[in-house]
Amino acid sequence: MRFVYSLLTLMMLFLLAVGGAGLYAVHLLTKPVALNEDRLIEVPRGWGVNRLADYLEGENIIEHALLMKLYARVNAQNAELKSGEFMIAAGSSMVELLDQFTNGVAFHRQVTVPEGATSYEVVQILNAEESLTGDAIISIPAEGSLLPETYNYTKAESRADILQRMRSAQQAAIDELWPKRAANLPFDTPEDALILASIVEKETGVGGERARIAGVFVNRLRIGMALQTDPTVIYALTMGKHKNDGQGPLGRRLLSKDLKVDSPYNTYRYPGLPPTPIANPGRAAIEATLNPEENDYFYFVADGTGGHVFSKTLDEHNANAAKWRKIRKAQGN
After folding, report:
1. How many folded domains does the chain comprise?
2. Which domain holds residue 69?
């Protein structure tokens, strides 16, 4: 009988020890790792949990690589990990880290180029992006050859890589959209479409107006009427090297004397399209230009709310322009 009691005692002690070890393991798996601040961790392609656990232990982020490996095996998380960069938060546990590296979303580096940025401005944006590698870009790409949007990139990509992606994206956009253009447009080439799209892009920041403004310019081109658009004059004066100091691309208002500048970009003096785009149009502006609204408008002017008011006759336009001058005067501009 004493033997039976001794055996039961040993079994109870064993179970308590196992239970205690299990509780301690749970404690280690769920307690915060040794990080005082968020940290970016790169996982190379082909890494598994074993390699990751050893790395984290070597960096003194976790204390027990073996425990992470065992936990991953028990939970079927020991397959190849996602590659890329991951931002791990201070206070994360081993369980949370493992879940992030196996199921989470990789950290995205990104740079945003606004629609209507000139190629000069694009270069300034990329050169100022500190996370991008490679030499600063010196040569300015052809105007209109880049597609403005937000680009995600990896640690390994350079400024030149992003620039090439922008070129490829713009070419892909025009290759896709050109065959879908409306019939009987007053221009014959994708290059001309990009020129007009860049003007449409610079004329309005209101998405719903793009097709209507494109329609106005198409109407003018069809009858040989000068486009008379201020952004082309601004480009004639700056060649895209805008001041961007909060006072407009010229650093001042466009003046009446500016409209007389002798430049092929000045659409007040020279009818038809300017020789090149005046900015890099986004996809929406290209789509609007290739499928403009069919309307009878030949004029538009700012309405004081960020949009424009459209008119069919010069008399209507002059009346609308007078209203805009009153609004601008009241605004102190």
Report:
1. 3
2. 29-103
